[in-house]
Specification:
mainly alpha; Rna Polymerase Sigma Factor, Chain: A; 9 helices
Length: 180
């Protein structure tokens, strides 16, 4: 049983951590959540099948723990003025609430993502791609595009709105798959 648990842990830890990190945008918090889940599984190992059949259940556990964390963060952020951060929390929560392993269709999601990119105004798409694909910070994007940081923030919010519209509940999943 110890070997089966170790194998399950080694095989799936990074996959679950990356899934959580897409929504939480904090690898440290994602690691803590995944460690807690595996601790729970280990402590109750006689109740769980320690093989790949447990994976969907693990994803559901991660989903629920992420939702709980994000709800706590949203409550904390109500008292802050960071509307973009609040918007991202809301999107992550909505996406997690809609997430279902059974309804996952990779090819369809890729098509929706490409349509969303095409629907964005060129300036918005370019700013979004610099941020998400090239990992530039807003200040760097502002310098590259010769615009203000506020304009970068506005364009990113516009990009997120388009993605949210096209991808509905799949926004964070797509970012994980395509940018992960």
């Amino acid at each position: 049983m110890e070997i089966a648990f170790k194998e399950l842990y080694c095989k799936n830890f990074n996959r679950l951590k990356n899934f959580a990190n897409v929504y939480l945008r904090s690898e440290e918090v994602a690691v803590c959540i995944i460690q807690d889940i595996f601790t729970h599984v280990y402590e109750n190992r006689e109740r769980f099948p320690l093989d790949d059949s447990l994976l969907p259940y693990l994803f559901v556990m991660v989903k629920h723990r992420c939702i709980n964390y994000l709800k706590r963060e949203r409550a904390k952020q109500r008292y802050c003025n960071d509307s973009l951060y609040q918007f991202n929390i809301d999107i992550a929560l909505e996406s997690l609430n809609c997430y279902s392993i059974e309804s996952f269709d990779y090819k369809r999601l890729v098509k929706l993502y490409r349509k969303a990119l095409e629907a964005m105004p060129t300036s918005v798409r370019e700013t979004f791609l610099l941020s998400r694909y090239d990992n530039y910070k807003y200040r760097e994007i502002a310098k590259i595009q010769n615009i203000s940081i506020k304009t970068v923030e506005y364009r990113m919010m516009q990009a997120i709105k388009v993605l949210k519209e096209y991808l509905k509940g799949y926004y964070a999943i797509m970012l994980h798959l395509l940018l992960g």
